[in-house]
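Bumping with the actual sequence this time:
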Amino acid sequence: LSPPLSPPSLSLSLSLSPALPLLSLSHPFSHEVNTPQHSTHLYASDHLIVRRGQEFQLKVTFDRPYKPSDDQFAVEFVIGGSPQFSKGTYIPVSVAKDRQSPWAGRVVDSTDNVVTVGITPAPDCIVGKWRTYVAVVTYSTSDSVFLDDADEREECVLNEVGVIYHGAYDDMSERPWNFGQFDYGVLDACLFIMDKAAMPITNRGDAIKVARKASAMLNSHDDDGVLVGNWSGDYTYGVAPTSWTGSTEILLNYSSSKTPVCYAQCWVYAAVFNTFLRCLGIPARVVTNFFSAHDNDGNLKTDVILDENGRIDKHRTKDSIWNYHCWNECYMSRPDLPQGFGGWQAVDATPQETSDGMYRCGPASVQAIKHGQICFPFDASFLFAEVNSDVVFYSRNPRDGTLEPVKVNSSHVGRMVVTKVPGQDARRDITDQYKFPEGSPEERTVVEKAEEYGCHREKATPPEADVELDMPLMEVRVGDDFELKLEFNNTSDQARTVDVYVSGNVVYYTGVTSSEFLFKTPRVILDPKKAEKQVMEVRSQDYMRKLVEQANLHFIATGKVKETGQIITSMRVVTLHTPKLSVEVSGLAKVSEEMMVTVEFTNPFKFNLEDVYVRVEGPAVISLTPRNLKLLTRSTTAPLMLRGGPVGPPFPVVHDQLLRLAHIEGEVVVLAPH
C-alpha cells in the first residue's frame, strides 16, 4: 500500500488589529481536552479531529499580552477551492460578543500573550477537511444524527469490531468483522470517497445526502466506486468475498489505487458501508434479513411454477429468494418527511436495482417501511418488498399455459431481521421494527396502504390442504451423511394419497441453484387423522464435490393430494457447519508489549485439503497476515505462530480461513491489563 492521504496542516488565518502581531496558533489541548470531549481519541491521526456542535479549543500566541478592551481578532475557517461565506465554505469566527458568527467563538482564558479560544462549529456544518477535521456529531442534541441512547451511541459510532449474521434464521452463524473506522488512513479514505463522487462541498453537512451518495459509491457499477460485486464463484482476479475479515484493507487499497477493489457480496458491502458511516460519526449498524425477496416489478410476489403433477418446473421458475441479505441502518432525522419518520433509516450499497439512474438504495425510513408508507423517499417500496413478499405456487395448465395459484405462503419472506446487541456479542431480533405480525389487523392495514401506492399481493386465497407437510430443522457438519425427514399429517377424516417430489440442491446464498444432487418421488399413504414420517438418506459423496461457497443445501418438497388435487409444499435451507479454528494467546497480554498468538486447525474431514488460505487480523494489534498452506492431510493439525503488539484496549483477533468448499473462522477476545 502507498501511504494514506495525509491531511494538510491546520488552516486558521486571523484578522488582527494592526498593533497585535501573531506569533503562532496551535491546538495543544488535543489529548487533554479536545479529543476526549469529542470522542475522537480513537482516530489514528496526529491532526485535530472534532465533531459538529461541540466546542474545541485552540491556543493563539501573540508577541505581547492580549488586551480584550483594545484588541480584536477573528479566526477564519475555509474549505474547498473557492470558499464563500454564502455557501458555508468560509466561516469567520469572532470572539467578540457583539459580532455574530455562524460558529460560536469565545475567549476561554488569557495569560499574558497566550489566548485560549473556544470554537463551536454549527451542528449542520460541512463535513470535511477544514485543514482541521470536522466530523458529523453524535453528541450534540441539535445535530441531525444525534442518537440519545448512550449504549446505542457507543455501539453504533465508537465500536470498531462487530458481528455479521448469516446462514438460516433457525440455524444462524456469526461472522466477526473489524470495522476499523479509527485506523490510520481510514478517515482520509472516507473523505476521498466523497471527493471521488464529486459530491459538492455544500452537501457534505447533510447526512441524508451523504448516506445516499455513499450507497452508490460503495459499489463500482456506475461510478468506479469502492467494491466490485461478484457472485460467480470465480475470484481469480481478486479476493474472495468470504476471505475478507475487515474494512481497513479495502478502504486503504481503494484510496491509494483510485480503482475499485475486488470482490464483494452483500455482507462486505454492508460492513464497509458501516465503517464509512461510523467514521464520519453517523450512527450505523449492519442488519441481516433472512429469506430476503428480490422484487423488481412491484407485485410483492415470488413465483414458483409447478407442472400438472405438482413438480417444480425449473425452466419456468425464475424468481429466487436470498437465504439472507445484509444492509445497513443509519440514524438521522428526516426533515424531508412528515414527523415521526426519522430515526433508523435503511440504506443498501449492494447493487441490485437502480434508483434515480444509479445502483443505490435508501435512505428509507424503517418506520415508513413498517407502516406501508412506501411513497416516501428513498426506495421504501423495494425494501418493503424484501421483507413482505409472498411466495406463490402456481399450477401450469399444459394445454393452454395458464397459471392458477394453488398455494400462497405469506410468512416465508422476511422471516427474521437481526442485528447486534449494543455492548454484547449477542443478536437482537428487530423484525418488529420492519413489519407487524403476519395475519394481524395491523399487517392487513399496512398491505392495503402499500397497495394504494402500486404494490399488489396475490388476491387469490386457495383453500388450505387437509394434509400438512414439514421438514424439521437439521444441524449438519460439512462432510457428514445425514437423514432428511419429511413429516406428513392428515387432518381429514378420510385416507389420503400424496405423490411427493423431493429435490435437494446446492445453492448460493442468493438462492440461485448451482446443481441438483438429490431427487426422490415417494408416494405416501395416510390413514385418517394419522401422521406419517418419510426418511431419506443423504450421502456426503453426493453433495461434497458440488459444494459452492458458504455450503448451503436447499431442499424443497412438493406434493399433490390424489383425492383432492391440493398442493402441499415445504422448504428447508441447511447451512453446513464448518469446524472452528483454535486461537490462543501465549502468556499474559500487556499494553505496549509483544505477545504470541497461536492459531491451530485440525482437518476433520475424510479427504485432504489443498491450497488452504489463512487470513489473520487484529485491530491495532496484528497487521493483516495472509498465509497459504499447500496441503493439509486428513486428521493433521496445522499450527501458526504469530507475533503481535502493542496491545490497546480490549480487542478481538479475527481469523478467516477460506477453503475450496467453505470458509472457517475463529476468534479470541483479549483483555489487556495496563
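The C-alpha cells above came from a reply further down the thread. Residues 1-20, 133-137, 646-662, 670-674 have pLDDT under 50 and may be disordered.
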